[in-house]
Amino acid sequence: MPNQQSHAHHYVPRWYQKRFLKPGQFEYFYLHLKPETFIHKGVRHHKRSVFHRGPATCFYENDLCALKFGKATTDAIEKRFFGEIDWRGRKAVELFNDYGRFANVHPDNFNILTWYMGAQRFRTPKGLDYLKERTGQPDHNVTLGVLRRFFQIYTTMWSEGIWELVRARQSQTKFIATDNPVTFYNRGTFPHLYPYPNDVGLEDIGTRTTFPLSLDACLIITHLQLVRNPRIGPHNIRANARGFAQTMKYALETQFGRELEEDEVLRINFILKKRAARYIAAAEEEWLYPERHASERKWSMLDDDWFLFPHLYKVSFGGQIIVG
To answer: Which residues, in sequence order, are CB contacts of 289 under 8 Å at separation 6+?
Structure first.
């Protein structure tokens, strides 16, 4: 029935998950990062951690985004709020995945993509728990209301950053999907310093945003100040750090076309895995373990060769925009 209430709420949409499957593939390898343990005859054992699963049974929780009124629940936010964002975001993700091949990426899609990224950042269990901790409001209905009001908080800073679409078409290893797709990386902040559900702030100059769009495409957003001075302290606060402010985006400065080497893809997957909360998924089982083959696993040295930076010489070091 069209009005039937949904209960399986995918905090990583199924359409997005399918972008990380190979052609003709319907299931991928789904890794539980913190499998349960049991004791048998005095010996502690870990339960199975890798499963074959399709998008319908991955990255979801029952009634995760349901509003609760006593014993009654409604999925209005899941269907109407996230439904609209997913519908628009899906088109934006598809266009940016092929950025450079199609010249008709409308400027509005920059806004739509950042809206989707903001919603995706907070709609996960980790994101919702983060909002509960920051607001001090454990009530689930209140948290969903906060999400609806504040999911665009990063849009201004993302829009003012330098965007680059990198590719993994020449790498045997491809990008993985995680339960925290919009991932922050700051070389000056080790993961254990920000235990679940906390994370480094986007206002830090050294914080980069990595967002895989498919098996072989990933968006990396870097603060302009970091691009202009790569040796600046990673925890300095960027100039005019703010949210919910109007800004302008020069669409033609978006960089694209760079093919990553195998080791660079592995290091991005390592970052994605380290910042995931419980689950990651990949089209091949070996891709679930980037730490086995990455040339560097020390957090502060993952980007020592600056591979996460855009092309520095393509970024202007001055100038102004005049609007009439």
So the answer is: none
Q: Coil, strand, or helix at residue 218? A: strand
For 145-259, strand residue ranges (E) read 162-167, 177-178, 183-185, 208-214, 217-222, 255-259
List, for the chain, all residue ranges whose pLDDT scores fall below the cut of 70.
Answer: 1-3, 38, 40-43, 45, 101-106, 318-324
Instruction: Tell me the residue length of the chain.
Output: 324
pTM above threshold 0.85: yes
User: What phi and psi values does residue 154 have, to the nearest 5 degrees?
Assistant: -95, -5
Number of domains in the chain: 1
Domain assignment present for 49: no
What is the helix (H) or strand (E) element at residue 120, kind and residue range?
helix 108-122
Would you say residue 41 lies in a domain? no
Range of the domain at 251: 76-314
Q: By CB neighbour count within 10 A (0-12 exposed, 13-18 middle, 19+ buried), where does 270 fall? A: buried
Assess whether the previous peptide bond of 23 is cis (omega < 30° from 0). Answer: no
Of 210, 199, 186, the closest CA to residue 299 belongs to 186
Cβ–Cβ < 8 Å for 197, 129: yes
What pLDDT, in 10s, does the model give residues 15-24? Answer: 999 999 999 9
Which tens digits make up the pLDDT trace of 156-180?
Answer: 999 999 999 999 999 999 999 999 9
Question: Taking a C-beta distance cutoff of 8 angstroms, is the pair 96, 113 a contact?
Answer: yes
**Residue 174 falls inside a structural domain:** yes
pLDDT recorded at residue 251: 79
